[in-house]
Amino acid sequence: MKFFVDTAEIDEIKELHALGMVDGVTTNPSLIAKSGRDILEVTKEICDIVSGPVSAEVVALDAEGMLAEGRKLAKIADNIAVKVPLTWAGLQTCKTLSDEGTMVNVTLCFSANQALLAAKAGATFISPFIGRLDDINIDGLELIDDIRTIYDNYGFETQILAASIRSANHMSECAKIGADVCTAPPKVIKAMADHVLTDKGLAGFMADVKKAGITIL
């Protein structure tokens, strides 16, 4: 499973990238607004760091506006994936950009039907939002499973990019289901390394080391 990091903070991307934990990056206007920098400038800098797909989101709501913005964003770098919402206008934009050879990430997916439409429109990625479904007492992981089944049934090449990841458990469950990609905040990716028994075992080892006066250097 590929790891995309969901942030626009350059230092966080560099840290995870150095460890081989970044296969791509997802951004949106809200994340870039938090950085306080120009959207095109930040996106270009991220593309220079990461060789994998970097999702950059349009802000227009109509197909004509989305297409114009998408084409402008695609010129930033060859690894840009234009991010469009899962609306009818978004699907129209997806089809046109995909036909032009641009990667497209269709976002804000909350149903299997929406995911099916995105695949038919040629989406490179579909982004189902797990956490937001969980927030309204709908099992977000079940949606990932449903999309996996449909895509496998018909051989769609659209990659399932599980989004709105809230916990390390979401990451492992998506991996078991067969999501192609998970995009998560840096803190969630780092939390995957945590386990109470690891901490307990390390504390025991260190107590023995101190008692025995062991040194390496």
From TrEMBL:
GO terms for cellular component: cytoplasm. Pathway: Carbohydrate degradation; pentose phosphate pathway; D-glyceraldehyde 3-phosphate and beta-D-fructose 6-phosphate from D-ribose 5-phosphate and D-xylulose 5-phosphate (non-oxidative stage): step 2/3. Its main location: cytoplasm. GO terms for molecular function: aldehyde-lyase activity; transaldolase activity. Keywords: Cytoplasm, Pentose shunt, Schiff base, Transferase. It is found in: Cytoplasm. It comes from the Bacteria. It catalyses: D-sedoheptulose 7-phosphate + D-glyceraldehyde 3-phosphate = D-erythrose 4-phosphate + beta-D-fructose 6-phosphate. The active site is at residue 83. Coiled coil: none annotated. This is Probable transaldolase. It comes from Yoonia ponticola. The lineage of its organism: Bacteria, Pseudomonadati, Pseudomonadota, Alphaproteobacteria, Rhodobacterales.
